[in-house]
Structures are given as structure tokens and as C-alpha cells.
Amino acid sequence: MPCGYFSETTKKVLFMIMKIIGELALVGAIASVFIVAAQGLAAERAAEETAGREYMRSLDELMSKARNKKTIASWNYESNITQHNNEVNLQVALEVAEEEKEYWKSTMSYLWHEYQDPDLKRMFEKYSKLGTSALPEDLNERLISAISNMQTNYAKATICDYKDRTKCDLHVEPEVTEIFRTSNDAEELKYTWLEWHKAAGAVSKGNFTEYVNMDNEAAKLNGYDSVAEWWLSEYEATDSEDQFASLWAEIKPLYQQIHAYVRRHLRLKYGESVVPAKGPIPAHLLGNIWAQTWNNVEKFTRPYPEKPDVDVTAALIAQNYTALKMFKTADEFFTSLNLIPMPELFWERSIIEKPNDGRDMVCHASAWDFFDGEDFRIKQCTTITDAFFKTTHHEMGHIQYYLQYKDQPVIYRAGANPGFHEAVGDVIALSVATPKHLKVMGLLEEGPEDLESNINQLYKMGLEKIVFLPFGYLLDLFRYGVFRGTTTTQDYNCHFWQLRESLQGIEPPAPRSEDDFDPAAKYHISADVEYMRYYISYIIQFQFHRSLCQLAGEYDPEDPTKLLSNCDIYKSTEAGNALSNMLQLGSSKPWPDAMEALTGTRNMEASGVLEYFKPLHDWLKAENERTGEFVGWEPSTVPYCTAEQRSAMESSGFNTRLKKYASL
Ligand code: X8Z
Ligand code: ZN
Asked: Which end of the chain is less packed: N or C, by CB atoms within 10 Å?
């Protein structure tokens, strides 16, 4: 039909329809162009992601070689401190830093932010932090030198003997440690304390300031405000500092009870002129040069002295334990859980005793991953003591973690967070230290497991675990302040002691000033080792212990014969397999995933510690009430801050922060 025959209206309608069809066709055509383009883009992205995956594989191989090279040089230096080994170590570290810088540039050219695969993204994200290698070479050299100067000084520091002042070759390990373990002479302890802090502390102040400046530069190049934020990032949460503070708030009442109980016994032993009734405890009387664990005062403060000694040092010596026998015993416990035995190379290359060929070395115990999947070593100046029996398990726990995650990419060969790594061996040692297990091993005499022995046992563990918590917490509260610039060189020692007094309730044995630099007399400050990891470990190890004990059928909160504090997971493959599953993850998943895999909760919780020590807490409260002991402490009368420093602490907000973090 010719068009002329249509009415005007029909024409209009037809026109509209044609227009719409035309527009639809256009939209369709455009859409298909878009679809094709989008498909192209998706394919491109997928190809880019595949390329990223390939790149990651090769990068990881290169990093394994680089880290292996760097670790060998560090081991050679730390196990034999010479000028030559120090220079080689520095050279290799700088070379590897340059290599890493090149790799980093390639890494950052990938569009990893867009990747679909969360695992691949996580690896790129981790590699996007270049660490201290981000520094220009000259600054990196200054950083490495500042740390190795402090480290060398700490390792070589010696003092003279109190009784024989001509004998001047006393190192922290073993001599100073041994004096603090055995001496009851307050004057000898004070002298040794002061000498050690002079030899290992004051001399490192300049290097420490240089280290802080250089490390803060590195932090900024990695996108952090300071090293404090960098260290905190390892805990993968925005409110980590608040989490740490609320854990302390929960534990503090328990700490105050054990503190009051110990102070009373020290006062009875040394007299009120040495240990004031309501004051902080003088730091030199607690059996440890840093007052971080107080096990060595157990022998004269034990709640039920007539019951057998729970310290196994004497039994180890009587039974001719050697360093090797302690290591073999620990290995046997791990394998009884179906965990991995220490490999051949480990036994060949570890240093488990201080060599007596006159060389200087870093004696502080450490466990090493050489990142080649084969070479794992411990370096430890073992002495035959209860403490080293535990440290041996502690270090072997690190090696066990390395072995469990050795098939992960290098970037994931780390703890779920730093606290997890520190907790593995300690969890094992919690079982080993039970009266039940020590009796099986013949290290503790047979006797009934009555209430009194249980309190003795819990008390001994409290002197090791509860009292450590404020120390573990404050060491990095101090360094966070330094890194953030709220604690300057003029206030180092004053702020340090303010924290020690507020959190630990201890005071220095004599007046201190800014000519002293007491923090560096602790290994981890002189060696640049983050310390919050131990605080976290001492909390989460009790969560791990509780879950493992339940899996092993050794703990039942309803059954008084199955106490958490006497649970031994020895030979439980159920417990071992659950632990292994968590360890194998390395840092491939955020830590709450790893925590959940073992404990069913995604949080760090104080409830494990509190549940474990509940009977002791009740006993201490009743005992302190019975004796009328003051719980808590009044301000120290030993001067360590000037009046100007004290008023500045008020006006600068230091005191406000202290109140918040110390739950004051
Ligand atoms: O440094 C250690 C281990 C090596 S990772 C021996 N620890 C801390 C210390 O000695 O201060 C273990 C407990 C706390
Ligand atoms: Zn450790």
C-alpha cells in the first residue's frame, strides 16, 4: 500500500515507531560495542592477572635467594663478631636492598589493586611494602651501622665481679644471669645491676637516636607516619593499641595481687629499708636483671614451702642433662604430637652452647629460617637450668613453625602475627612444665596433686607469665613514644622509668638521669626487635593451650581432676594436628582466621590467662587480705625524672596517654 494512503495520525505513529526502532538499534549497536569492549577488557584483565601470577612466582624465587644470602651473612656475623664479618654483613645487606628496590619497581608496575584473586592481591600487597630497602643507600648504611653498633656493644659488654673486682669478663650470659638467679645479697645485686646498665645501656644512647631517625625515614617511605604505625600494621587491625590496652585492663587486678604478695616476702627477707611497704619493688631484687620474670624468687616466696620444689634445675643437673639432651627431649615432645622432627641439617648447623674459643657472639637465643626450605638453625648459649629447658622449647617452636610453612611462598613464611610465632614453643612448654609431665620425666618427685601443690605450681607459673605481661607491654609503649616523637632524647630514661613504675610497679635501685639509657640494657632494644609480640604471645598461648587441652581430652572445666594448669597434651595427635593446621597457614591469611581455626574465636582474649590462674588469683586475694598487705603501689621516692620533666609530662599529654594505656 502506497504511503499516501495513510492518515496523518497513522503516519505520525509510524514515524514514532520507526524512530524508536532506530534508536533501539543504535542503543543495541552501541551496547554490543560496549559488550565487546568490556569482554576485551575482562580478557585483558584476566591476562594481566595471569601475568601477575607468573611474575609473583618468579619474584618469590628471587626473594628466597636474596633472603637466603642475607641470612647467611647475618648468621656469620652474629655467631662470630669480627670486623670482617660485620663488614661483609653490611655489604650483603646493602646489595640485597638494591636488588629488592629493583624488584619493587617491577612489582609496582602491575595493576594488582584490580585483581580478582584475593590471595594474589595479598601477596602483591605484602610485596608493595619495600621495608628498610626503600631508604637511599647512604641512609640505609647509617641505619644498619647504628643497629650493628648497638648489637655489638650489647654482645661484647662486660662488667667486673662484685667480690673479685679484678675479674672483669662477666657477660650477661651466663654470668650476670647466674648472679641474678642465685644471689640473695642485695648489695651484690644492686652493684651488678648498675654496672650492667652502664656497660650495655648508657653507651648506646647516640646510636639509638640515629637508629630511630633512620628507621622513621624508612617508615615514611613505606607510607607510615612513624615506625610505631609500621610495627602496629603487623597486627592487621585499626584498633590494635586499644586491644592491647583493654587486655591489660583485664589482667591488671591479677598482676597487682601477685605483686603485693611478692613485695611482702621481699620485705620480710631484705627489710623495710630496702623494700618499702607500699612502694614499687626495687628492680634488682626480683631474680632477673630486667625484672621481666620473677621465677628465681620462688624458692623463698613459695606459698607452701614444705611441698617439693617445682624448679627443675637441680633435677636436670643431677640427671646429667646436657644442652644436647635438653634439645633431644624437646624434639621428642614435638614428634609425640605428630609434629615435624628437627631435620638433620638442624642438628649439624645449630649452635646450642657458647663456644669457648674466646670469640664474641650474640648469645641471646634465636631461631633462624634460611628461606631455602632446608636450612633451619638455633643459636643459643644453653646452661643447664629450668629457664633454659623452657627456652629450648620456645626456640624449637619457632623452627616448628618454619617447618610447617616451608612450602608457602616466601612472602607468607611468617607468623599469622608476630605474637603467634612467639607462642608456639611456649604452648608446648606449658604442658612440659606441668607436675604431671615432669613426674613422667622423672624431673619432679612423686607426691599427691593436692590443692597446696597446685597453688605452688600456679604460683611458679605466675612468676613467669603474669609478671611478664606489663614488661612485655611497656617496652614498646616506650618505643612507640620515641618513634612518634613524643619522647625525645632529653626524656628517654625518665619516660622509660615512668612506664616501668606505672605498669610494673618497680623502681630503679638508685637514682637515674638522662646520662643513663636503661632501655638499651635489654637485648631487643639494642637489636631492633619489636617486643609487643611477646606480650601478645603470653596472652594467646593460654587460648591455644585451652583449645589444645580440650582436643586432647585433658581439660574439663567441670572436672576438678582435669585442671587447665595440669593439662599435658603429650602424645595427643588430635592436638598436634590442630596446631599443625594453624601453623601451615603461615601469614597467608589474616591472623583472626588462624586464631579461629584453632580456638573458634577471632579475637585475642585474656580469658585464657584468667581461667588458668583463677585458683591462684583467689588464693592471693585471700592471702593478701589475711596479711593486710597493701595492694598496688604509691609513687616511688627514687628520683629518675627532674621537676621540669615531670611538669612537661603533664602539659605534653604524656600523663594522659599513660593513664589510658596503663589503666590508671
Ligand atoms: O627473646 C626471647 C626469646 C627469643 S625470641 C629467647 N624472649 C623474650 C626475652 O627474652 O625477653 C622469650 C620471652 C621474652
Ligand atoms: Zn622467640
From this structure: N
Q: Which amino acid type is present at position 222? A: N
Pick 27 or 617 by higher pLDDT. 617
How far apart are the CA of 525 and the centre of ligand 2, in A? 15
Residue among 331, 392, 330 at smallest CA distance from 365: 392
Query: CA-CA distance, 495 to 649, in Å (whole number)?
Result: 9
Q: Report the C-alpha gap between 650 and 465 in whole angstroms.
A: 32
Cα 538 to Cα 553: distance, rounded to the nearest angstrom: 23
CA angle, residues 493, 497, 503, in degrees to nearest 5: 150
How many other C-beta atoms are found inside a 10 Å radius of the C-beta of residue 65? 14
Strands 376-379 and 506-507: unpaired
Q: Return the closest-CA partner of residue 133 out of 107, 105, 94, 106.
A: 94
Output the CA 541–ligand 1 centroid distance in Å.
Answer: 14
Q: Which ligand is nearest to the CA of 534?
A: 1
The whole-angstrom separation of Cα 212 and Cα 547 is: 40
pLDDT interval class at 38 (50, 70, 90): confident
Grid coordinates belonging to 557: 572445666
Q: How far is CA 361 from CA 105, 171, 286, 377, 506, in A?
A: 37, 11, 27, 15, 31
Torsion 315-321-323-329 (CA) sign: negative
CA 289 to chain centre: 20
Specify whether 395 is catalytic. yes
Q: Which residue has the cell 631484687?
A: 285
Any idea which ligand is nearest the CA of 419? 2
Q: How far apart are CA 626 and CA 8, in angstroms?
A: 110
pLDDT mean over 419-435: 98
**How far apart, in whole angstroms, are the C-alpha atoms of residue 231 and residue 241?**
11
Mean pLDDT of all residues in 496-523:
98
User: For residue 364, which atom of ligand 1 is closest to its CA?
Assistant: 6
pTM comes to: 0.94
Choosing from 364, 524, 545, 617, the catalytic residue is 524
Tell me: pLDDT of 11 over 60. Answer: no
- Distance, CA of 501 to CA of 632 (rounded, Å): 11
Predicted confidence (pLDDT) per residue in 93-151, tens digit:
999 999 999 999 999 999 999 999 999 999 999 999 999 999 999 999 999 999 999 99
The pLDDT assigned to 1 comes to 36
- The interaxial angle of helices 418-432 and 532-551, nearest 10 deg, is 50
pLDDT at 22 > cutoff 70: no
With contact defined as beta carbons under 8 Å apart, do 507 and 658 qualify?
no
Q: Closest Cα to residue 525, out of 563, 458, 588, 471?
A: 471
Instruction: Give the C-alpha distances (Å, rounded to integers) separating 270 from 266, 299, 638.
Output: 6, 15, 18
What amino acid occupies position 454?
N
Contact present, 174 and 280 (Cβ < 8 Å):
no
Res 75 pLDDT > 80 = yes
Q: Which residues does a 6 A CB cutoff place in the pocket of ligand 1?
A: 365-366, 391, 394, 534
Atom of ligand 1 nearest to the CA of 391: 6
Provide φ and ψ at 648, rounded to 5°. -65, -35
Q: Are 636 and 507 in contact (CB under 8 A)?
A: yes
Q: How confident is the model at residue 449 (pLDDT cuts 50, 70, 90)?
A: confident
Ligand 1 center–CA 338 separation, angstroms = 26
Q: Is 113 a catalytic residue?
A: no
Total residue length of the chain: 664
